[in-house]
């Protein structure tokens, strides 16, 4: 059902691309409880849609302990699982060129990366080009005031224009606090309104969006077509972070309602007990999920 609903939405948006109110109206129709229902209950009747293997990635932050202990071996293990794409969060003491060499050896592409924008942007962009990144995202920002968020949005927009000149679009990755109002205003709204959609895309972390009380489907539709990447990590009913498919977030419904413009589905777990087990579980889930 959601597949047809999504087709109607995207057809309508193609005709009303400039009408932002249409996105809000449609997005508001989807309630949060429909997203955070048990995946095991919702995964059996979602149709034939699937995540293409070339859109499956993993955030290497999830494997940081393993990478620090054995970088070559861990990258080799990811390749054995089936990953052909990763998202970076540092290069673990290697130069960009050295890290690229290890990736190439394992036939893995670092299509995305998490970066800061307050340092040497020229160096950051140069490294991203060496690594082969086709997208970059600021992974975190936090401010106590709306004015602080407004200033950050300005810096993000300026940095994004510079990244775009180098052929690498820059986006923002959310946590939960961006959805908690400050003086009645949500920082996420300040961030999205204060940046140009042409230059700043959005990477939605599904766990943190749900944790922040937000329906990812509504969020996607409100900001269509800016959302191009998902962080796929699951959540138990009481808020514990778990591997994809082990919690209550209804990924099949989310994927089915938002799939046309998603470039990457990125497996992640902030603090996994066994990083390579999480990598395997996440890859298997994304290969097998239907929506």
Describe this structure in words.
By secondary structure, the chain is an alpha/beta fold. The protein has a single domain, classed as Divalent-metal-dependent TIM barrel enzymes (TIM Barrel, Alpha-Beta Barrel). Helices cover 45% and strands 14% of the residues. The chain has helices at 2-15, 20-27, 32-35, 39-42, 64-69, 71-81, 96-105, 121-131, 146-165, 187-193, 206-211, 216-222, 251-258, 275-288; strands at 56-58, 85-88, 109-114, 135-138, 170-173, 200-205, 227-232, 234-235, 241-242, 264-267. Helix 1 (2-15) packs parallel to helix 13, helix 6 (71-81) packs parallel to helix 14 (275-288) and helix 9 (146-165) packs parallel to helix 10 (187-193). The N and C termini lie close together (10 Å). Mean pLDDT is 90; it is low at 15-34 and 37-45.
- Quantity of strands, as a count: 10
Rg is 18 Å
User: Which CATH C-level class is it?
Assistant: Alpha Beta
CATH topology: TIM Barrel
Please identify which CATH superfamily we are dealing with: Divalent-metal-dependent TIM barrel enzymes
Largest sheet: 8 strands, parallel
Q: What's the overall geometry?
A: globular
Number of H- or I-type helical stretches: 14
Question: Helix fraction?
Answer: 40-55%
Q: How much of the polypeptide forms β-strand, as a percent range?
A: 5-15%
* Total of domains: 1
Going by CATH, the architecture would be Alpha-Beta Barrel
How far apart, in Å, are the first and last alpha carbons?
Answer: 10 Å
Strand order of the largest sheet: 1-10-7-6-5-4-3-2
* SS content category: alpha/beta
Mean pLDDT: 90
Low-confidence stretches: 15-34, 37-45
In sequence order, what are the helices and strands, one letter per element? HHHHEHHEHEHEHEHEHHEEEHEH
